[in-house]
């Protein structure tokens, strides 16, 4: 019997990529799903598919932009209790030098990747404290550990996620709440398409000559981390494709 069976799992950014893959893996483990994202239609399609495949679980969907604290608070309050939170919602816009980044792009990245993660966590943690149980899994990035040219604000946002994760771990040390961070390297999802503002050719070029990670690869690590015994906390995990050794150190076949 899976340790995750019957657990209520909230996943943000669940309509695609890593978030969608996490939903599929938690469903297979027997967890009930609380799926949140901006694209409600995608969530509804995913709900129908997963409930058909796994009749014993309950899947609930919530249209949510994590940048709005009021909406986050209202949506989380309507969910009931959350056993596992996967803070996955996040994005990157452009590959611009610092002096060229627009205010809009900067605000979108910081409001989503940092403030949005904080809002959802703030809404969930009090209930976990009251029950003295729960697990928060933040999806960070190697970019939060190793800054690179033309990624200053995105790297800063993921460095903030790393610091928030470590601080929260210290703040909950006297409880049974677990706090983890998973930091992927190159993962091929819609992430790069968004980064290049819909330019699929540019997005594909990021992975040229190598085999990147995919959403399932990261979802498997999330399931592993969430499924450890309650006295075990995988605090941090760095996950690369085989031909990557650092944020910008990638071997590509000629």
From TrEMBL:
InterPro entries: NAD(P)-bd_dom_sf (IPR036291), Sc_DH/Rdtase_CS (IPR020904), SDR_fam (IPR002347). Coiled coil: none annotated. GO terms for molecular function: oxidoreductase activity, acting on the CH-OH group of donors, NAD or NADP as acceptor. Keywords: NADP, Oxidoreductase. Belongs to the short-chain dehydrogenases/reductases (SDR) family. This is NAD(P)-binding protein. It comes from Podila minutissima.
């Amino acid at each position: 019997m899976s340790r995750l069976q019957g657990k209520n799992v909230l996943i943000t950014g669940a309509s695609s990529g890593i978030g969608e893959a996490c939903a599929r893996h938690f469903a297979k483990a027997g967890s009930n799903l609380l799926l949140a994202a901006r694209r409600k239609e995608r969530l509804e399609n995913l709900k129908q598919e997963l409930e058909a495949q796994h009749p014993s679980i309950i899947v609930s969907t919530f249209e949510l932009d994590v940048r709005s604290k009021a909406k986050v608070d209202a949506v989380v309050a309507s969910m009931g209790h959350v056993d596992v939170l996967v803070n996955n919602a996040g994005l990157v816009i452009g590959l611009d030098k610092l002096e060229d980044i627009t205010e809009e792009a900067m605000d979108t990245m910081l409001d989503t990747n940092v403030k949005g993660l904080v809002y959802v966590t703030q809404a969930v943690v009090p209930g976990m404290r009251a029950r003295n149980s729960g697990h928060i899994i933040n999806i960070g990035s190697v970019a939060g550990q190793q800054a690179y040219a033309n990624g200053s604000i995105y790297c800063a946002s993921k460095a903030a996620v790393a610091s928030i994760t470590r601080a929260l771990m210290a703040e909950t040390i006297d409880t049974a709440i677990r706090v983890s961070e998973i930091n992927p390297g190159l993962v091929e999802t819609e992430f790069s398409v968004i980064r290049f503002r819909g330019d699929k050719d540019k997005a594909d070029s990021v992975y040229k000559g190598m085999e990147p990670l995919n959403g399932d690869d990261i979802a498997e690590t999330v399931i592993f981390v969430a499924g450890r015994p309650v006295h075990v906390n995988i605090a941090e995990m760095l996950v690369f494709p085989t031909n990557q050794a650092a944020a910008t150190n990638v071997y590509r076949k000629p």
